[in-house]
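Regression check, pyridoxal-5'-phosphate case 381:
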Amino acid sequence: MHVGGQNHRDPFFPEFYKTCLEEVKMIFETKKSSSDGTAIIWPGTGTGGWEAALTNTLNPGDKVVTFRYGLFSHLWIDMMERLGLDVEVIDCRWGDGADEARLAEVLEKDTEKKIKAVCVVHNETTTGVTSDVGRVRETMDAFDHPAMFLVDGVSSIGALDFEFDRWKVDVAVTGSQKALSLPTGIAVVMASEKAIAASKTATSRRVYYDFADMLRTNPSGNVPYTPELQMLYGMRESLRLMREEGMENVVARHSRLGCATRKAVKAWGLETLCKDERWKSDSLTVIETPEGVDSQKIVDVAYAKYNLSLGIGLDRVKGKVFRIGHLGSMNECMLLGALSGVEMAMKDVGVNVELGSGVAAASKYLNDTAAAIPTREHMLA
Ligand code: PLP
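Current build output:
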């Protein structure tokens, strides 16, 4: 990323930018490493991606259905309402994921197919819950429902299995500061042909996040306004690292990190906020603190004494949980360091935890399941 400033109207840019748009598809389709979608990259953040997804595919007054199970799903709903959409919210416990049976009830009643979009936050970063997007799609298919399928993949895409084509997602959104391990500053949107067709007639007001300006200029490798060049260099490097590791291995690494963290939580005698095995997130773990212990204190002590930055409990779960992020450019030893910091901080605030217990459980699991790093297998031959 540390390259001198360049003019994006210089001859190098079009080929460079076309490569960015092509290469980023890999993380939207981890199984096949390609996608039928069209990538659009904005200087922006995940929230901008949300806005692009909604305003390019829907008209004010359109009926949409979505789930609320954490702060991010709640904020997306707030945006939908502010954009004048008619939102039917399926409220779930914070700690649960998208309940397909409840979606089925809503879709079953929609005999006139008035619902224009189903929106799902794949990985709810407030609660450490990964919903089953494939099963949500199956539920829509069971009713032959033509609604647009919009998915927030901000804390999943590039870390967890994501199958844009197979799940027939119409717009998927991610940001640079999560699995891409970059600073904040890029919103990546993947749009299906159906979403692009909808954008030609959708009447929601939009300017900056209009697909049209991007789709007019991007095919020739151009952009309608100044691109975030350093971020694009960073993104290409992140993608190169992921390609070298192999997307299936990237997903498997996150699964191991998630599993190891959960082993530590169990060894501490604590529980994750997410109770259902099928929804437990591999990109972050959200841990409930024992009765009477303010989770904010653990986060504060970890930061003040051990230079460890944990996620705080947000909104409804403020003070009740803390979050350990384990997505992106992260390996086993980094995680074990974080787990030991958590243990020390918990002990400091009076949680009854034996130092080393979580680290021992996590490292035992990691040790039992360790294999050579894919690019270094030859060293163990
Ligand atoms: N969606 C999810 C799941 C998130 O975790 C976040 C941010 O953490 C957002 C959306 C909002 O993204 P941003 O803060 O990049 O605008």
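Comparison notes: The chain has a mean pLDDT of 97. Residues 45-47, 72, 121, 123, 125, 152, 154-155, 175 surround pyridoxal-5'-phosphate (CB under 6 Å). No diff flagged against the previous build.
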